[in-house]
Each structure stands twice: as structure tokens, then as C-alpha cells.
Amino acid sequence: MLKKIIFQFLALSLIFTYSAQSAESGGMPQLNPEFWISQIFWLVLTFGLLFIILSKFILPKISNNLETRKSQILENIETADKQREETEKKVKEFDKIINDTKIEAKNFFNSERQKVLDDINNKRLSLEKDIEKEIIKAEEEIDQLKKTSQEKVTKIAIETSSDLVKQLIGEDINKSSLSAIVEDLSKKEMEKRNGI
Amino acid sequence: MAANPMYQFNVYRIGPEIKINNIDISFTNASLFMVISSLAILIIFNLGTKRSIIPNKIQLLAELSYSFISKMISDTAGSKAKPYFSFIFSLFMFVLFCNMFGMIPYSFTVTSHIIVTFVLAAFIFIGVTIIGFIKHGLGYLKLFVPSGVPMVLLPLIVVIEIISYLSRPISLSVRLFANMMAGHTMMKVFGGFVVSLGIVGGWLPLGFSVALTGLEILVAFLQAYVFAILTCIYLNDALNLHH
Predict the structure, then answer these.
(1) CB-CB neighbors (< 8 A) of B178 in chain A
(2) Residue B87: closest CA among chain A residues belongs to which residue?
(3) ipTM of predicted complex
(4) Per residue in A18-41, pLDDT tens?
(5) H or E segment to which residue A159 belongs
């Protein structure tokens, strides 16, 4: 089988080489001037049209596209730069604002605390003053009371004793003598109290 | 007869014979591939003109080739060559697409014909010479007199310079034509080897053929680039004298 195929191929190739050798008498077709004029004519026509259409319609469009792209890219880069600068500025401003606010808050806190402390101090001071006044007043009152109580006590004692006597005896007695007795007693009592 | 490596370069008429004043300008397979290449360039680059800030793939291709050729021109010929940008762009694209379409099997390579490349080169040569004389007047002739050459050597140098200047269109056209023709002929020859050696010995030339295809694609790009950059260099001579 394989032998047959190889044989057929060899036969075929022999035929081809034979026909090739027989056709080689023509030489170079390029040097045959039969179609030179036609080729020149069609070359001028096609190349001329190609040149005109390319230069008038297509190439300006391409160059325009390239230019617009270039300018657009430059513009975009510019705006991007601008925006970046703006952002940096804004970030700085933001930082500044935050810092300022922090300082302000601190100051406010400090001042408020100072105020509150002052307020407390003032209130305490005024309260202390009031208390002192009250104490003095109370002391004075106490003193007064101390002075007046003695007389009152004797008066009451005289009255009660006179009433008692009246109840017991059934008649009034001289008030002055009674008072003298009561005073004498109370003096003795005072002396006893003070003495001990 | 299809195995003749030169057969692929045959030009034949497609459609009726067109004659103007007894001059044959019939539509041929060469004309067909010129039209196809031009149309392909126009379609691709027209699709690449969408006005979007982020380009799609085809727009990126168009814009990258635009900046590639723009950079090539400004690198070799300076900023004065800006007005000739569209011509060099069209030239590069035309040669490149003709070369690349020639890489498709059974297609026709327009640039493998000396008459096509020679007309392009001659046009460039004449155009550059006219630009040179317009820009510098008769001072353009100073191109043939390099500065800093001893007086004794001057006549010889001037003759050499003139010959090298006049041979520019020939070298430019023959370089492209010969490269394309040689590459395609070689691929055809290796293809013929594949057939004639058959299934036993045909693998080696087949591998060569594959490798040659890659090489030829590279050459197709490179020759278009060289054609365009040499045009830029000639333009540079005309625009910036003594540089």
C-alpha cells in the first residue's frame, strides 16, 4: 500500500518537473513590455486616488483624533492636579479646624471649671458669712435670754408662790415680802449652783 | 506549467481589452491587486477614524501606524517634511499592502514588477529633485559638492556624487522589485521541491517553505519600510541642504 502511494507520488512529481522544465523558455514576465503601459496607468490611477482620499479625508481625521486625545489627556491631568491640590488644602483646613476646636474645647472646659469652682467658692464664702452672722445673732439672743430669764423666773416664782399661798391659806399676802423671800431663795439656789 | 517559478509573475488581462489611442490599458490581475490593496487601506483606515477617546483595535492600528510613520519622517527628514506626510504615508501603506497581499498563495504581487517600482521610484526622484530646486534654487547643486573635500579630489567626488544621485531611482526600484521577486521565486522553487520529492523527501523543503513564508512576511514589511525611509532620506537632502 505504502509502496504504491510512494510510487504514485514519484510519478506525479516526475510529470510536474517535466512540465516545469518545458515551460521555462518564457524568461521573466517582468521584462515583457506588453502590459507596462496598463500597469503604469492603473498604478497612477489607484495610487493617485489612494493618496488623494487619504490626504484629504482620512489622515486629517486621524491626526485630529490624536490631537484631541492629547489635549484631553493634558486637560485631565491638569484638573486632576488642581483637584489634588484642593484636596490637600481642604485636608489642611480640616486639620486646622479640628485642632482649633480641640483647643477651644479645652479652653472652654477650663474656663467653665474655673467658673464653677469660683461659684462654689463664692457660695461657700457667703454661706459661711451667713452662718457666722446667724451664730452671732443666736449667741446674742442666748445672752439676752440668759439675762431676761432670771427675772422672768423670779417673777413666775413669785406669782406661783402667791397663788400657792392663796390656795393654802385663802388670803392674799403682801407681794413685796413674798418677792423678797423668793429672791432670797433663788439667790441661795444660784449661789449653790454657781458655787459647786 | 504551474510549476514554473516565474509563472506567478505573469500579467494577464481580466475582462475586455481597453484601448485608448491604440494604447493598451486593459484591466489586468496587477490592476486588480492594486485596486484591492488601495481599497483595503482605505477601508481599514476609514474604520480607524472613529472619534472616541479610548480607541478600539482597528482605530489603535490606524493611529499607531500614523504615529509610526510620523515619527519616521520627523526622525529622518525633520519638521520641514511635514507637508509630505500624507504622500509618504500613502506610499508606505501602498507598498506594504501590495507586498502583504502578494503573500497570499495564488495572488499576484504588484511590487514584484520592475515597471511598478520604477514608476514609483522615478516619481519620487523627480519630485524630490523639483522640491530641491524650488527650495534652494541653483544652490541645490551644492548637494554634489560635499564640504571639506580637498580641491584635488573635487572633480572626482562631484562625478561620483552625480552618478550616485542619478542611480537613486534605479537602486530604489530594483531593491524592492528584486526582493519581492526573489522571495516569491524561492518559495515557488521550494514548493516545487516538495512536489517533486514526494512524501518521502518533501518534508525538508516543506519546512523550508514554511520558514520562508515567515521570512517573506518580514521582508514584505521591511522593504516597504526601507522604501519609505529612503524616500524620507532623499526628501531630507532636498529640504535640508548640507546636513
Answers:
(1) none
(2) A51
(3) 0.90
(4) 454 544 446 788 888 888 889 999
(5) helix A59-169
